[in-house]
Each structure stands twice: as structure tokens, then as C-alpha cells.
Amino acid sequence: MSKKHDTPLLDELEKGPFPSFVTEMKMAAKHSDMSNDLLGHTELCYKERVTHWKHGGIVGVRGYGGGVIGRYSDIPDKFPGVAHFHTVRVNCPSGFYYTSAALKEMCDLWDQYGSGMTNVHGSTGDLVFLGTKTEHLEPFFAEISSRGWDLGGSGSALRTPSCCLGKSRCEWANIDTMAITNDITQHYQDEMHRPAFPYKFKFKIAGCPVDCIASIARADMSIIGTWKGPIRINQDEVQNYAKKMNIQAEIIDMCPTGCMAFDGKSMKIDNANCNRCMHCIAKMTKALRPGTEQGATLLLGSKAPIVTGALMSWVIVPFIKMEPPYEEFYDLIDKIWEWWDEHGKNRERIGELIERLSFPRFLKDVGLDPHPAMVKEPRRDPFFFWDESDIEK
Amino acid sequence: MSKKHDTPLLDELEKGPFPSFVTEMKMAAKHSDMSNDLLGHTELCYKERVTHWKHGGIVGVRGYGGGVIGRYSDIPDKFPGVAHFHTVRVNCPSGFYYTSAALKEMCDLWDQYGSGMTNVHGSTGDLVFLGTKTEHLEPFFAEISSRGWDLGGSGSALRTPSCCLGKSRCEWANIDTMAITNDITQHYQDEMHRPAFPYKFKFKIAGCPVDCIASIARADMSIIGTWKGPIRINQDEVQNYAKKMNIQAEIIDMCPTGCMAFDGKSMKIDNANCNRCMHCIAKMTKALRPGTEQGATLLLGSKAPIVTGALMSWVIVPFIKMEPPYEEFYDLIDKIWEWWDEHGKNRERIGELIERLSFPRFLKDVGLDPHPAMVKEPRRDPFFFWDESDIEK
Amino acid sequence: MSLPDRQTDIGPPHYSKFLPPVIAKNYGKWLYHEVLSAGTMVHVSESGEKVYTVRAATPRLLSTDRIREFCAIAEKHCGGHLRFTSRNNVEFMVDAESKVAPLVKELNDKKYMVGGIGPRISNVVHTQGWVHCHSAATDASGLVKAIMDDVHEYFTDKELPNKVRIAVACCVNMCGAVHCSDIALVGVHKTPPRIDDNNVKNFCEVPSTISSCPTSAISPDPAKKSVKIKLEKCMYCGNCYSVCPAMPIADAKNDGIAIVVGGKVSNLRSDPTFSKLVVPWIPNNPPRWPEVTDAVQKILKAYVAGAKKHERVGEWIDRIGWEGFFRETGFEFKYQHIDDFTFARETFRMAATFKWS
Amino acid sequence: MSLPDRQTDIGPPHYSKFLPPVIAKNYGKWLYHEVLSAGTMVHVSESGEKVYTVRAATPRLLSTDRIREFCAIAEKHCGGHLRFTSRNNVEFMVDAESKVAPLVKELNDKKYMVGGIGPRISNVVHTQGWVHCHSAATDASGLVKAIMDDVHEYFTDKELPNKVRIAVACCVNMCGAVHCSDIALVGVHKTPPRIDDNNVKNFCEVPSTISSCPTSAISPDPAKKSVKIKLEKCMYCGNCYSVCPAMPIADAKNDGIAIVVGGKVSNLRSDPTFSKLVVPWIPNNPPRWPEVTDAVQKILKAYVAGAKKHERVGEWIDRIGWEGFFRETGFEFKYQHIDDFTFARETFRMAATFKWS
Ligand code: SRM
Ligand code: SRM
Ligand code: SRM
Ligand code: SRM
Ligand code: SF4
Ligand code: SF4
Ligand code: SF4
Ligand code: SF4
Ligand code: SF4
Ligand code: SF4
Ligand code: SF4
Ligand code: SF4
């Protein structure tokens, strides 16, 4: 298609070394009227310094309660191409690996049914197809689902789980993040596609406490690989590192628990005091490796700051083996969701609910024993509850 | 008087090396019926594992709204000597220094008008005379006030200010704690004796951040001596310490800001990064001394945990010279009290009020500028208020 | 043309279909890795096999043609395999050292920015902005472009004391990872929502609108079958607007950008940390937001000058104190920096220990 | 006998009247001090003059005869001067080294416990208890006596890694410095107040009683002109009883003692810190509370075994982690340890970093 709108402000954003989203929009605009109008619409937002999108209505595909975000322009007459401009969240494959064949097929379909613009990926991890009309949703879905793809989550549902690449290319993975992510996704298809929760629920799975998927900050449940027992040390490699780095300053002095020692010859770790922060391992990867008894820590509750401040996930299960068929894990998740369903208010995340009803109560109700790993420190005030059974009559 | 009650449980508490309060009660019981009954009364509490004191009614001396805590037994028939058992809070001299002449005079009066039992001192710092009848309050007060003593605070009033011994015997005092305490006490006699605040208000004054009076934990206003500029170093004495202690391990490595260095010969301090914690000075007192530009940090708000958890005082004025006539200081206190009077609910401490109405609002209302020293860290959420004047129309 | 039979609840394709052979073979067997340059690294397996990764930046908002171009590169060099990272970079993997240089050359020739590996600035996690969201107080993609142009050397070349994670969210819903980033920008409002009484009556549920407000600023206005806002209680969070579209809060003159810094999610050395406010408001100044890029540079400069090797931004600040941070950067400390909400009590300086600035 | 003329608002006597001459002369001129023994130290002035301090324990609850005995000692050795410390010890000061030994000898002969200076346990800050307070859930003086008998060697002789401040409060009003002490005991209730409807009607103001409750457990009972308590909301704080005497909360069988540890007020090394709960409840077992003294010993033993020189209890715990503390002491970690009130959110372990126990 030929250029429809002047975009002097956006054009400024084609300058400079970093790849430009404006260039992308212009590329798409070459075959898409929608993207052509998206350019003009965005230029106007830039000019007026305000968004021109309306609150989205509910649109979607048959049988699904989510996966599509409805979006409408508030000036459809001026920009008919984006009068409707819904996004389709396609569930990514675990680990974000693709083949060109698969991607090209999706691109062709999107050029046919959508704007030709995408987000690879959305913050949650979906392969986001950005901008289509209501009437194209159903056919696009038929095309992609028949080719083995499915929608991700939106609304008050399980959202698309995502993970770091884990064992596929990382030497520190304590759990098989990609296998776990895929299993959870398949296990809970219904919870993902038919919103029935009080609010959204996200899983993110990291292979180790480096947390390359930022799970602790933005997943209602964060599954973080970890280990028990001693860090494996290759003393020869320690010697090699000693030649290129200042082990004392960069490793020993930076160990947060002060549990390491290096006498110039061999490295010692007081493993009982190591908190598995990963610093030494990350900076001396040839010399140090996680221990061999591997599993995960489960943390619950993170979310963005609306409305009383952000939460990070906190420990609810210090250690769990994460191996198929993940029975213990799924049992726990089911209990947690049941509890949340029963007590949660509309638009109340699990972390907020626990805060409201209390963490001890949550633990009792879902059957978890208290453990010092769950808290940074015990309570400081002397106000605490007792059960009937604790009282002398 | 002869023994009136058997006290088998209390007698157990006369055993062992630490001086026994039971022995004290028995000593007093020798001339006091009240103390004799106090022994029996206390024994009963021990036996039944429960207190036998009733909620105190309001008693006091003419013209004063405080200084006396009313106390009544809930079994006066059994223990008539403690049917009334009020305590008289006498304002201690700053620094808790006494002469034997003064103390003996007070003791004689107390034997005459009270139980012969005291607390030296109460937690707030009063010289507490423990246990007398309502009719003895007035004469006891006449006797002591004519000899130069006065009552301390109780109820919703200014409480007796107290301090560490400061310059009288400590090399680290940055302010004259005893002079300041005395001045505040005299300046605010009316506020101490005629309760007109929403709740209690306490001052505690420490000569340096060692805080030997625990001001930061239990004073609505904590005045803590501090300095600007470099710590004074006597390098010869550093050398002497090097002979008897491991300066690296005990000082350099324990400096919380990592701002010290010792090369075996001389000690260096990066004073811009020192937070004046006092560790190095306290452990090397011959070698290190606070800087010479001395004054105080004012902190506001500490209190016990009732009802939403304890508060420690926090910084509201990073640095103030505390020199007579303390005008700037008194001006600020007056403003703070005015604000508290205006907005505080009944039984709301100043710290709780600030928490309720917000710290920024407090600062604006009393005319203090925001300063990073007031917070450990800036807020983490993006929710903050603006004034009309900050808005573009 | 008839559509194929739709399937439901099949979930995503299994990842095993997409793994490059060298990855599939050495899955779970990696021993160590080495960073070879700003944009290349090698992972070595127990088996002795190696995988070389080449990383390039993307703007995340991609046209299908761009994806096709990535596919073409992957086909030419990597047997048709490619992946994207959790920060929206694209990665091409090859199984022999000799294949790296041609791949990098092609990427460079095509003007891709190769880099982002090691102690550097990687891509910016961000959100929809004016390109797609009704809630946006600023644009995300434009801010990202302006910032990355400005700091691109730290992506393609120069090292920093440690990784610096930058994030952008276009409103306080914070769909990016702003709340735990080294440096993050968030679009904020400064004025309360405006109530369209007629639309409230017709389109909104009054009780849920009222209960959406974290500060209880909203109360019913029964006469108008609408709601009213106690203006001095409103902290412009926009949550009511999320629930009730008849309360628009966008305000071209007063919307702007706040900067928060010092957050992280990794557990290395120090625990994961929330970002803290350092600049409460910068006006929206598209297309290149110069005041914002300046502020980001100020932070980076102070960090580079002050931090020890391996210290993240927040760890550096922790060591020098926030008063040290304000001193080093020259940002003004304002009333807005002082918490007056959920965490207020825990942020007050309950100690006599602070540094003179 | 007629009374003297009363005076009002004269305040306390000026301290200058009470200062020993060597103190008055060298006021503000002290240069340094040295600890000479567990109970003696010397301060040296710019002028070269010295003051020797001898410290002895008192039970704080003193009879007038005891004070007279202190006065006699002061007259004999110190020109009639003496002082008390902020932790209720008595101090005698002399201006020459030769005067120290006779003074110490007399104190020892009279069975006073000389000590408490330096890295040791000093006297216990405490409160009224059953001896005088209506609010007490335990006795204070008896607990202090039992504990100090048990740890007296750390007062008179043995050193610890640093000072250990012990405090006792007989109820959660915490008139002691319990909330910021190395080791502290606080009397706690475990059952809700019992309402005497008749007395509530007659003696209490219903609205202020209701508003006194931090958990909103109290509501009006209009029929009885009294109040009622939602039992599951009551956390037994007793604040309602402070406001309304008709709601007694003392309960002989269920009142007991909680132990909190790791607090401090000094700014040295680490900021002032609140004490944290380690044992939620130990039954009241007067006269010697053996379960309490055992628990205190456990804490002290673990501290002595584990702490580095100069580390306070809380600093040691900070280094080994609370999970380390529970491991080293063997105390059971219970639901009660997990905060569910004001600070709850800040205490959750928002990190994957903890130690195995
Ligand atoms: C598309 C995406 C941003 C992006 O550009 O990548 C996005 C976009 C929206 N988010 Fe989000 N969120 C996206 C990831 C996130 C994340 C990050 C994550 O999932 O890792 C968060 C923070 C973590 C969290 O869940 O708290 C996030 C926290 C929110 C919130 C705040 C929720 C809360 O409980 O605090 C809202 C508000 C709401 O739900 O009403 C929200 C709401 C929205 C809505 C639906 C706006 C609305 O109120 O209707 C946005 C639709 C924009 C649009 O035009 O498409 N979005 N949102 C991300 C989803 C793409 C994907 O599926 O891959
Ligand atoms: C590819 C990717 C995982 C994925 O599944 O996509 C990844 C891959 C690696 N990360 Fe990461 N990290 C990736 C996102 C993250 C994230 C998440 C994020 O940024 O949202 C984090 C947490 C950031 C934070 O704390 O805020 C992250 C924090 C780290 C760290 C910790 C740095 C630190 O000291 O705090 C390391 C260890 C290191 O650098 O020594 C690390 C190390 C690594 C290693 C060396 C792991 C390995 O042995 O393979 C990988 C290459 C490092 C590199 O790029 O420098 N990775 N890494 C992600 C690449 C994103 C990108 O395009 O830049
Ligand atoms: C006598 C003394 C304890 C002692 O044995 O030393 C004491 C005794 C009482 N205190 Fe206290 N407080 C005493 C110092 C403290 C301290 C410590 C301090 O001042 O340094 C605190 C903690 C700091 C603070 O102010 O928060 C303290 C916090 C309380 C509280 C809780 C106040 C709060 O806002 O959290 C109450 C409850 C109340 O006011 O209703 C209280 C109430 C009481 C009452 C009046 C009980 C009542 O509710 O009526 C006690 C009278 C006991 C009696 O029988 O004499 N007392 N009280 C202390 C005063 C002696 C003196 O004047 O020197
Ligand atoms: C006499 C007294 C002040 C007074 O006006 O009465 C005092 C006097 C001294 N204190 Fe103190 N402190 C006194 C209560 C305190 C308190 C308050 C309290 O316990 O309620 C504290 C804070 C405790 C806390 O943090 O919880 C206190 C924490 C210190 C410290 C800090 C120790 C640390 O490393 O945390 C020092 C420095 C040191 O010991 O190296 C210190 C040092 C000193 C020095 C050496 C100061 C000096 O140069 O003269 C004095 C003798 C030390 C000694 O006794 O070992 N003094 N000292 C108090 C004696 C109480 C007692 O009978 O034991
Ligand atoms: S989180 Fe751990 S396992 Fe996963 S990619 Fe990062 S370093 Fe590797
Ligand atoms: S993993 Fe962290 S805590 Fe453990 S030894 Fe290494 S640096 Fe220390
Ligand atoms: S607070 Fe400081 S000045 Fe006061 S006695 Fe303690 S160490 Fe000395
Ligand atoms: S006072 Fe504290 S912070 Fe300052 S140099 Fe000494 S030990 Fe370090
Ligand atoms: S951060 Fe706000 S404006 Fe940006 S995409 Fe998310 S909801 Fe929309
Ligand atoms: S913007 Fe936020 S604070 Fe303001 S009225 Fe709406 S919900 Fe309440
Ligand atoms: S702590 Fe409680 S019981 Fe003890 S004196 Fe204070 S108010 Fe009374
Ligand atoms: S004891 Fe405390 S929590 Fe219980 S009803 Fe009374 S005030 Fe409320």
C-alpha cells in the first residue's frame, strides 16, 4: 500500500543505531492498511501526547474466554484501519525456540488476517499478534490451531507460563524448565482458556536462582531451581581462574554469607551457610557447579504495584523435586486455587489474598508446615493467634 | 513491724547471687505495714499466677494532672496495707547523679509518708516512690517540693525527659545531654504537670549514636549527638592498638560503610562515606574521636508496640546545633505539638499520627524540607501526590 | 476458501520440535560457557560439543517481513533454527566456531545491533504504549528507541560493572518488569480522573468502581447515579479507569515519566530488590524524550564511576546510601520521594546513621 | 506538725548540685576510658585527672534502707556522691586508683555484685509486674532475679562477644525496652478478655473501647449496653482492658511469656533493630520460671559459640540467618512466628536465598 499519513515525529525515531519500531510499522504498512493507519494513529498520539485507544470490549474466539485483547480507536473515522485493532496472544513454545518454517507459516497467516505487526514476545511470554478486526479472529484461530498452535491466556485466567531456557543451553539449570513449563501449560488448558479465577494467575519457571525469566517479580507462582548439598568444586579450574581474576575481591569478599575461603591454593565453601545465591558459580562457571541433589523452591505471590504496592513471590515450599508426573506439585496448586477461589475477591491476586487473610492461615488451609525459610525474619510484635487446642481450659 | 505473711514462693527468690527484690520488700516491711502487706499480696499473685491490682483511679496532688499513678488492690480486705498503693513519680536530676544527703532526706520522707519501697529508677527515668495512700500524697509533695524536688510526668503529658550522662563522664558526647535535659524539663513544666496532649510525649537525649539511654526505641523525640567533618585520628595510638588487637578484623572489616583502611602503619577514613556509627571510635577510644563540628540529629516517633507494632524514632532534622537558648529547637517542638494537638486522636502518639497523615504532610505542615537522611530509601511505588502548583493547567 | 478444522485446548507446539540439533543432543549436559564478545558466547557440553550463540537486538514490535528476514538468516547459517530471549533479543546458534564470523558479518551488514551479552545493557523490557494501549501515560517503544540509541555502546561494546536491566512501562499497571529493574521508566499521571457522569451511569458498576480505589477517594454520587472523587485523596493510579472507562485519567499536559532505580531479580550476592523512586516526574517530550535520556545517562555515569566490579546498580547504591546516590547524580530529593503509602513505616530512617551530602 | 510551703513547677534539682568534684571539674573534657575489670573502669581527662567508676547491680526495687546503705558507702568512699545508670545499676566514683580496691572490697563484703561493664550482661531493664501493675501477665522482678542468678557470671566475670542487653516487660505495653533488646521476655495473654457487661455499662465508654481494638474485634452489644468480641479476631493485646477495666484479660492458666531476641538500639556497625519472636509462649512458672531461664541459656550458649567478637546477638543472627538461629538453638518454628499483622509483607522471604537447616 502507499503511504497514507505524514509522520514527522515518528520519522525522528528511525534515526540512530537501535532498530526502530517505526521502520517495522512502515514495513508492515507496505502490505497492510491497518498498519498504515496505525502509523497515522500513533503519530497523532505523539503529537497530542495522549493515547487514542478506547477501553477494549470483550472479543474472542468461540469456546474461549480469553487469548484476545479487544482494542478500538477513539477516532475510528479518521483511522478506519485501526477502528478495531485487537491483539491475539498465541502461546509460545517453551524456551522461545522456533524453526523458520513454523514462523514463516504464522507470518503468512498474519499477513492474511491481521496487520502484519507482532510483539515477539509479550511481557508474559506470548507470541503476540498485534492488531486485527473482530471478524478475522475466528478464521485466524482456525488456521493456527489446525497447525498446532493455541491461544495463551488473558483475563481472570491462568496466563501463558514461561521459562528461562534451562537445560537446553544453560549449565546451571537444576530443573528442566522447558519440560515443566510445557507440562503445566498442557495440564491446565481449561484454566487458561476459560477464565474462572478471581483474577489472573501466572507461572514463571527459572532453572536456578539467577532467575533469567524474572519469575520472582512477575509470577503468582515462581518455580526456581535450586539444590541441596555441597557446591561441586574443580580445584584445578579454581587455579586457572586465580590467574585471571582477583578471587578474594571478586568472589570471597562478595559472597553474601561469608562462607567461602581461598588460601591461594584451594577453595573451601562452608555449604551449611551458603544460601545458593549463585554469585560464585556464575563468575567461576568452569570451577564451580550447583550440587547434585536438585529440585526447586516454590514461591508465591508476585505482582505489579496496583493497588497497594508490588509484591515479589515468597517461599512457600523450600524444596520440591520437580519430576514428572509432578503429582505433589499439581496437588498443591489445586489446593491453592481452591482456596483462592473460595476466599478471593474479584480482582484480588493470590498474593494480595494471602496478605489479607494472613500467611499462617494460608499455610494451615493448604496444608503446609511453617518453616523458617518462608520468612526473612520472625514477626517482631507480640501479637499472635492461638487455636482452641493450644489453650488450657 | 513483725512478719505478717508467710511467703514460701517469694522466699525462693532470696536465694542466689543477684540482689533480691524480696529482701528489699522484707527490709521495708520491718518499718512499714504497707510493705508487709505488699509481701503477702505479691506472694498471693505468685501462688495464683495472676495480678491482684485493679485499674488505677485518678489521684494526684493539687494543681497537677499527673505525677501519681493510682493503684488499688482487688482484695483490700485481705491486704489493707495495700488497699491504696499509689506511686509517686519524682523527676530525677539529669544524669541520675545524687548526693547522699539529698537521697537520705527523701528516704526519711518516704518512710514517713509511704511504703519505704522505691524504684530507682522507673523505665522513663523517674525516681519512683512505690506505694502510698491517697491522703499522704499532698503532704509528701509539700515536703519534697519545699526541698527542691518536683513531680515527673504521667498521663497525656510530657513525661520526664532523661539522658545518658554525656559530657559529665563520657569522652564521646557531642552535645551536653544533661544541660539540654534540664533545660527542656524546666522549659516545659506546664506541659509536664498539666496533661493537655492527645497522649504521652517523651524526650530522651543521648550524647552520641551509641545511645546509652535507648532514646531511639522509647522517646517520641530522640535527640542524638553527632558530628560533621572528619573523625579525629591519633596515629600513634593507632599503632598502640595494632599491638593488642586485630585492627583489620575488628575494625576495618566491621565498619558498616567500608570506608576505613589500615595499611599496618596509618589509618585512613573516607569521612564522606562514614555514617558515624561509632564502632571504630568505641573500640579504639584512645586513637579515634568524633569530629569537632558537633550538634545533634533529631528523630521523632518511637513507642512501644501497642497497637500496630513498635516504632523507632526516625530522622526529622539531620543536624542542629544544640546550644542555649535552644530557640530553633523549641520553635520546632512547639510547632510539632501544635500539629499533634490539632490532628491527633485521643491516645495517638506523634509517630502514629505521622504514619496516619503521612510523613510528607507532617514535614510541610511543620516547615521542614525533605532530605534523603530522613529515609532509608525512597518510596518504591509510583503513587505520590502533587500540589496544585505542580500542575499544568 | 474454506477454513481448516479448528482444534481447541491443544496448547503450544512441543518445544522439542524446534530445538537445534546440537541443543537437542546436549540438553542437560552443558558444562560451562564463555563470553567471547559483546554479542557472542559459547557453551561447552560434557560431550565436548559446543554451541555458539550470536545475539542481536530487536525492537520487539516486529513486522512479519522482519521475522521473515530473521528466518532467512537462520536458514542460511543455523539450519533454520532461532530463538528469542526473555528480553526480546533474537539468538542464532551454530555448532562450530567457523560458522560464527559469517553469521556476525551478515548481521552487521544488515545493520543489526549484535551484543547484549555479559556485563552490559541488554534490550529493554517494555510494553504497548500509545501503539496499542488505552491506559498508556506515555509511549513505550519510542522511549526504548530513544534510550537505546543513546546507550547503544553499552550493548554492542563497552562493559559495565555488571548487567544493567532497563525497563519501561507505559502506566502504573507496570506490564514490564519495572518494579525490579536497575533503571526503569514508568508513565505516570499527575491529575485525577475526570468523571463523565452519563457514561458512569451507563457503562460502569458503581460499587466495583468505588472499591477499586486504593485510597478510598471515590464515593457514590446518588443524585447523578454516578460517583465523585475526593480530589486530595487521589494519587492518580488509574485503577478506577481500569474498572470504569467513564473516568479517563490521561492528561496530555500533566502525564509524564517517573524514574525508579536499583531493583533486581537475580539472587546473586543480594536478594531480589524493588526499584525505588529517583525522579518523580519528567514531562512527556516525544519523539525523543531528551530529559529522560539525560537522566538515564546521569545514573549510568554515576554508576560507572562509583560501582565496584559485579555490583548491580542497587548494590552500588546500597553501599553508598541513597543520600550518596542523590549526591552523586544531583537529582533533587523531594516530598514525593518519601513514602506515604503501604511501606512508609519501613522506609523511615530509624537510625542516626546517614552520610553527609 | 505543719507542712512546709509547697512549691510547684520548679522541676528537678539542677544536676550540678550532685556532681562529684572530679566530674564537675572535668565536665566535657574526657579523653578516653579503659575498662579495668568487669566492674571497674577509668576515664581520663585532658587535664590528666582520672575518675574511677565502680558499678554494682541493684534489683531496682529498693527499700529506703538499701538506699541509705548506698549512701553510707558513698560517704565513706566517694565524698557522698553516687549515681545510677540507665540500666539501674549503682555507680560509685573515686578520683584516685588507690581508692578503688577498698571500695570494691566493701561492696564485695556486703555481697553486692560488682560488674556489668564491658562486653557482658548488665542489669535487666524491667517493669512493675505483679508487684504493682494491674496489667501484668507475669511478674517482672521475679523473672529478672531468676535470670540474673542464672547468668550472673556474665555480669561479674566472663566476657561475651559484645554486650547482651536483657529486658523484661510484664505485658505488651512493654514499659521496658523489650522491643529493641538482645534478649527480652514479655508477658503475653493467650485468651481474649472476658466481658463483664454490667461493669462495661457503668464504667466504660463504649465508643472508645471499640476503637481501642487494633483488629476491630469489638462491636457494640446494644441490648446489654455493652460490647461483644469476635473471638477469632482477638489477638489478646489487652488494649481494650487498658481503656475499659470491665474487660479483664488476665488468665492464670494461659498467661505466659514470649521471648524475643536480636534487637539493639546502638548504631554501632548495624542500625538499631527490633527484637524478633523466637519463643511465642512459655507458661508462667513462678517463682523461678525454669523453662524461661533454660531458653535464655540456650540462646546465650548458641551466641557465645557462634558469634564473632563485637557482634551483638542480632548481628550474629543476621549473619547466620534466622533459619540458622532456629537450627543452632533447636527452638521450634511455628505458625506464630510468621507475621500476620502490620509488617507481615516485609517479613516474607521474597528471595530464593535461605540456608538449609
Ligand atoms: C501485552 C502486555 C504488555 C506488553 O506489551 O508485552 C500487557 C498488556 C496489558 N496489560 Fe499487562 N500486559 C502484559 C504483561 C504484564 C505483566 C508482565 C508479565 O506477565 O510478566 C504484568 C506484571 C506482572 C503482574 O501480573 O502483576 C502485567 C500487569 C498488568 C496489570 C496489573 C495487574 C496487577 O494485579 O497488578 C494490569 C491491570 C489489569 O489487569 O487490569 C494489566 C493490564 C493489561 C492490559 C490488558 C490493559 C487493561 O487494563 O486492559 C494491557 C493490554 C494492552 C494492549 O493493548 O494489548 N497488566 N501485565 C503483556 C502481555 C503480553 C503477553 O501475553 O505476553
Ligand atoms: C538468554 C537468557 C535466558 C533466556 O531464557 O532467554 C539469559 C541467559 C544467560 N544468563 Fe541471564 N539470561 C537472560 C535473562 C536474564 C534475566 C531476566 C531479565 O533480564 O529480565 C536476569 C535477571 C536480571 C536481574 O537481576 O534483574 C538475568 C541475570 C543473569 C545473571 C545475574 C547478573 C547479576 O550479577 O545479578 C547472570 C550471571 C552473570 O551474568 O554472571 C546471568 C547469566 C546468564 C547466562 C550466562 C547463563 C548461562 O550459563 O547460559 C546466559 C548468558 C548470559 C548473558 O546473556 O550475558 N543472567 N538474565 C536471557 C537473556 C536476556 C537478554 O536478551 O538479555
Ligand atoms: C512505672 C513504669 C514501668 C517501670 O516499672 O519502670 C511504667 C508503668 C506503667 N506504664 Fe509504661 N511505664 C514506664 C515506662 C514506660 C516505657 C519506657 C520509657 O518511658 O522509656 C514505655 C515504652 C515507651 C513508650 O512510651 O512507648 C511505656 C509504655 C507504656 C504503654 C504503651 C504506650 C504506647 O503508646 O505504646 C502503656 C499503655 C498506656 O499508656 O495506656 C503504659 C502504661 C503504663 C501504666 C500506667 C499502666 C496503665 O495502663 O495504667 C503502668 C503503671 C504501672 C504501675 O503500677 O506503676 N506504658 N511505659 C515506667 C515509668 C516509670 C517512670 O516514670 O520512670
Ligand atoms: C553508664 C551508661 C550511661 C548512663 O548514662 O547511665 C553507659 C556508659 C557507657 N557506655 Fe553504654 N552506657 C549505658 C547504657 C547503654 C545502653 C542503653 C541500654 O542498655 O539500655 C546501650 C545501648 C544498648 C543497645 O544497643 O541495645 C549502650 C551501648 C553501649 C555501647 C554499644 C555496644 C555495641 O557494640 O552495640 C558502647 C560501646 C562499647 O561497648 O564499645 C557503650 C559504651 C559505653 C561507655 C564506654 C561510654 C564511655 O566512654 O564512657 C560507658 C561505659 C561502658 C560500660 O558500661 O561497659 N555503651 N550503653 C549506661 C550503663 C548501663 C548499665 O548499667 O549497664
Ligand atoms: S535462570 Fe539459571 S538455569 Fe535459567 S538460564 Fe538463567 S542461569 Fe541458566
Ligand atoms: S552461592 Fe553465593 S552464598 Fe553460596 S558460596 Fe557462592 S557466593 Fe557464597
Ligand atoms: S550515648 Fe554516647 S555520649 Fe552518651 S554515654 Fe553513651 S557513649 Fe557516651
Ligand atoms: S564511625 Fe562507623 S562508619 Fe564511620 S568510620 Fe567508624 S566504623 Fe566506619
Ligand atoms: S503498562 Fe499500562 S499502558 Fe502499558 S501496556 Fe500495560 S496496562 Fe497498557
Ligand atoms: S486514580 Fe486511583 S486514587 Fe485516584 S480515584 Fe482513581 S482509583 Fe482512586
Ligand atoms: S509492661 Fe504492662 S504490666 Fe508491666 S508495668 Fe508496663 S503496663 Fe504494667
Ligand atoms: S485484647 Fe486486643 S485484640 Fe482482643 S479485643 Fe481487646 S483490644 Fe481487641
Order of SSEs of chain C, N→C?
HEEEEHEEHHHEEHHEEHEEHHHH
Share in β-strands of chain A: 15-25%
Using the alpha-carbon principal axes, give the shape of chain C.
Answer: globular
CATH class of the largest domain in chain A, named Alpha Beta
Number of E strands of chain C: 12
Count of the separate structural domains of chain A: 3
Poorly predicted residue ranges of chain C: none
Mean pLDDT of chain C: 97
Structural class of chain C: alpha+beta
Shape of chain A: globular
How far apart the termini of chain C lie comes to: 73 Å
Main sheet specs of chain A: 5 strands, mixed
Tally of discrete structural domains of chain C:
3
Main sheet: strand order of chain C = 1-2-3-6-5
The secondary-structure element order of chain A is HHHEEEEEHEEHEHHEHEEHHEEHEEEHHH
Explain briefly what this protein structure is.
The complex is a heterotetramer, with two copies of chain A (393 residues) and two copies of chain C (357 residues). Chain A has 14 helices and 16 strands. Chain A is of the alpha+beta class and 393 residues long.
Describe the structure.
The complex is a heterotetramer, with two copies of chain A (393 residues) and two copies of chain C (357 residues). Chain A is an alpha+beta fold. Chain A folds into three domains: 8-146, Alpha-Beta Plaits (2-Layer Sandwich), CATH 3.30.70.2500; 162-227 and 294-392, Sulfite Reductase Hemoprotein, domain 1 (2-Layer Sandwich); 230-289, 2-Layer Sandwich (Alpha-Beta Plaits). Chain A is 33% helix and 16% strand. Chain A has helices spanning 8-12, 21-29, 33-48, 100-113, 134-146, 177-187, 189-193, 215-218, 235-244, 247-250, 279-283, 327-343, 350-357, 359-366, and strands spanning 53-54, 68-69, 72-73, 86-90, 97-99, 117-120, 127-132, 162-163, 203-206, 221-228, 232-233, 260-262, 267-269, 288-289, 293-300, 314-320. In chain A, helix 2 runs antiparallel to helix 3 and helix 4 (100-113) packs antiparallel against helix 5 (134-146). Chain A starts with 7 loop residues before the first helix and ends in a 27-residue tail after the last helix. The relative contact order of chain A is 0.08. Chain C has three domains: 15-109, Alpha-Beta Plaits (2-Layer Sandwich), CATH 3.30.70; 125-190 and 252-347, Sulfite Reductase Hemoprotein, domain 1 (2-Layer Sandwich), CATH 3.30.413.10; 197-243, Alpha-Beta Plaits. Helix content of chain C is 28%, strand content 18%. Chain C is globular and about 75 Å long. At the A-D interface, strand 10, strand 16 and helix 14 of A face strand 12, helix 11 and helix 12 of D. Strand 5 (97-99) of chain B pairs antiparallel with strand 5 (81-84) of chain D. The complex binds siroheme (4 copies) and iron/sulfur cluster (SF4) (8 copies). One siroheme sits between chains A (56, 69, 71, 87, 89, 119, 121-126, 128, 152, 160, 200, 202, 218, 303-304, 306, 349) and C (127-128, 132-133, 135, 173-175, 242). One iron/sulfur cluster (SF4) binds next to loops of chain B.
